[in-house]
Amino acid sequence: MSFTLYPAIDVRDGRVVRLRQGDYDQETRYPGEPAEVAARYAKAGAQWLHLVDLDAARAGGYTLAPLLAAIKSTTPLRVQTGGGVRGEADVEAILAAGADRVVVGSLSVREPELVIGWLQRFGAERITVALDARQDESGQWQLPTAGWTQASGVALDGLLKRYADSGLQHLLCTDIARDGMLAGPNLDLYRSLIEIAPQVAVQASGGVRDSRDVVDARDAGCSGAVLGKALLEGRIDLAALCAESAAC
């Protein structure tokens, strides 16, 4: 099975940032313009980029179309991107700006029938469903929305089955408790998702610390891994990882 590395750039107020467990009040800013960071990742050998509009994720209205167009015109990167997708017009606009895949988060939880329709209209290869999960006291994985600030009452396993039965190809799943924490990816979670929907390519997101975590995610059956804080802080040598694992 092929395995893909997705260097991540989260953008807020035009800056490259990371949030701690999705908390907008716990932000770390990193040097470099987003386009410059993307170019650096491309030079290191990355083939894909995961680009997130954090402003839109909370307020709606994707704002990174100019940045996306710039990245696509100056690098060979393929880009999956999202944040603030609220309707079909947003998907159309993001694809028109050059996205290879549109990431749909909260709406995938709130209006699954709408998103299932997009899988059919735009093609399942063009949509990444992001189901970001938090484990409740009973051990069930729940899916908060609106930048992880609102409870939805929707369980991860049931919704994944619904999407898998409707032709979903790409799932990005973040264990919110591990996001930005450098605690290692939740391999048990990903193994359970792959067991539920073996035909879906699962991207591990949240907690990756080093190259060993990337290998572990691949060995657990994931199709790829999103690299955020560890990459920005120099804990992962992207060029070496690409060369060694052929994962880019």
TrEMBL record:
Tagged with keyword Isomerase: yes
Pathway assignment: Amino-acid biosynthesis; L-histidine biosynthesis; L-histidine from 5-phospho-alpha-D-ribose 1-diphosphate: step 4/9
Localisation: Cytoplasm
Keyword Isomerase: yes
Pfam family, one: His_biosynth
Record's keyword terms, sorted: Amino-acid biosynthesis, Cytoplasm, Histidine biosynthesis, Isomerase
Enzyme Commission code: 5.3.1.16
Catalytic residues in the record: D10 (proton acceptor), D132 (proton donor)
Any GO MF annotation of the entry: 1-(5-phosphoribosyl)-5-[(5-phosphoribosylamino)methylideneamino]imidazole-4-carboxamide isomerase activity
InterPro entries according to UniProt: Aldolase_TIM, His_biosynth, HisA/PriA, HisA_bact_arch, Isoase_HisA-like, RibuloseP-bd_barrel
Location (main, coarse): cytoplasm
Catalytic activity: 1-(5-phospho-beta-D-ribosyl)-5-[(5-phospho-beta-D-ribosylamino)methylideneamino]imidazole-4-carboxamide = 5-[(5-phospho-1-deoxy-D-ribulos-1-ylimino)methylamino]-1-(5-phospho-beta-D-ribosyl)imidazole-4-carboxamide
PANTHER family membership: 1-(5-PHOSPHORIBOSYL)-5-[(5-PHOSPHORIBOSYLAMINO)METHYLIDENEAMINO] IMIDAZOLE-4-CARBOXAMIDE ISOMERASE
Family assignment from sequence similarity: Belongs to the HisA/HisF family.
Protein name per Swiss-Prot or TrEMBL: 1-(5-phosphoribosyl)-5-[(5-phosphoribosylamino)methylideneamino] imidazole-4-carboxamide isomerase
Organism the protein comes from: Lysobacter korlensis
Protein's gene: hisA
